[in-house]
Design brief:
Number of strands of chain B: 10
Structural class of chain B: alpha/beta
CATH architecture of the domain at 2-87 and 156-234 in chain B: 3-Layer(aba) Sandwich
Distance between the termini of chain A: 44 Å
Structural class of chain A: mainly alpha
CATH topology of chain A: ABC transporter involved in vitamin B12 uptake, BtuC
Number of domains of chain A: 1
Strand content of chain A: under 5%
Strand order of the largest sheet of chain A: 1-2
Largest interface: A-B, 16 and 22 residues
Mean pLDDT of chain B: 89
Order of helices and strands of chain A: HHHHEEHHHHHHH
Oligomer: heterodimer
Largest sheet of chain B: 6 strands, mixed
Helix content of chain B: 40-55%
Radius of gyration of chain A: 19 Å
Low-confidence stretches of chain A: none
Chain lengths: 293, 236
Amino acid sequence: MSLFFQLVVSGLASGAIYAALAIALVLIFRATSIVNFGQGEMATFSAYCTWQMINWGVPVWLSLLICLAASFIVGIIVFRSFIQPLIGAPIEAMVVVTLGLFVLFQAVTMWIWGADQRAFPSIFPDGGIAIGGVQVRISALGTLLALAIAALSIGLVFRFTRLGLSMRASAYDRTKSMLVGIKVQRMLMLGWGLAAVIGMIAAVLIAPRLLLSPTMMTPILFYGLAAATLGGWDSPFGAVVGGLLVGVAESLGGSYLPMVGAELRIVVPIALTLIILLVKPVGLFGSYKVTKL
Amino acid sequence: MTLLDVRGLSASYGKVQALFDCSFSVGDGEFVALLGANGAGKTTMLRALSGIARSSGTISFDGQRLDARPPEERLRLGIAHVPQGRGTFAEFTVDENLSLGAITLSDAAQVRRDKERWYQTFPRLRERRNRLAGNLSGGEQQMLAVARALMSRPKLLMCDEPSLGLAPAITAEIFEIFKDLHKRHRMTLLVVEQNADLTLQFADTAFVIETGHIVATSPAHEMLHNQDIQKSYLGV
């Protein structure tokens, strides 16, 4: 039983990272009806920038702050240069553009920093604490806490501020939002910036565990996609629940299902996505209409 | 004094031209009815005025040229548009819808006072303030749409077919509110309607629009009794 709880806890910690990426994906999907396949690679790029600054001797927290701000700006630039001109274009064109972002950011990262893996410092102290016989790493708790803070602050801003209300309205209906005087393009732009920031949070949380490499976030994108599909593509809350569930399912599946094992873990999110799409295509908390391609 | 002056306004949807060289003006504090059959171009006219449909020609409002300005700037200058089919945000609460109406205003205390004022005018909205707009009845949604438009403190309130899909009693209630806004608050109103008889009883002036042209203009009470216009254009 202790093994079970151990697996659940480590699953939750991974799940927090999938949830963060899923939140980023969902924010963009809600606002612009686009799945940003480049989200993970954009996050990797941000993590590399952070690593570079730390390597130059800049304090870790300052590097993080600067790079979070830079990620926000990169998100905005990506929106302005690649997405805004295409608003209203067919969905296929959008998919190709975001796949292009995937290739672009991976290539740029590899071009600047090469393909070697780099050690990324953990922002949390080493060690663990025992809670009722279950060993919990401090980094796992820290990761969950970071997700909770990020998700909660987004939730509060969305629910209680004028800016959040404008962003939600823009995502809900562009024409109506224009009619009440919201600068819709600016809100969509902010959405892309915010998503890039959250994506980076996911990347710097997982980088110490996976080691930094240009393809670090590629598998995480699958988990993020599964989490968003499970939670529902128009629900940030669903993304959090979906992420945590996918993390736990992966952790339990990898240990209890002999045919999966550690090597085939990536099958878990893909299988989950397939099952959700067959059983409940809108996800647990979603209400979005289903599009068949 | 003229509040809105439109000269040579044309608009099209793709290749289909919906408005041809329309010119008219609306005085400050005037209640204007824009009448016409289905597909005559009434909705396009409002959309062109609020800036969500592209148009050519000149639109002057309160001494300023509007035609090159985006919708949100026109709203800031004082044009509020209640679109056809209410245009409320169905998945947002009544209170949030009112907040959205005032999203261009930064004085939070003033916004609260305005909300209070419109809740007094529309007590049913106050009772339902935490409900989702999508769960309101058609009449309540129309009231919410009007109240939301008023939250932006407009000089001109444009309303597209407020009677659409509503029971006659509710429609009458909404027109009473228009009358009150018009008489007591000196609000300028531009109301698009198919229900000519009802609208003409409340309006000062009426324009008739047919296949994109303004074909008749006269004081509302004259048009109410002008059998020719009623027969030719309004299908009465």
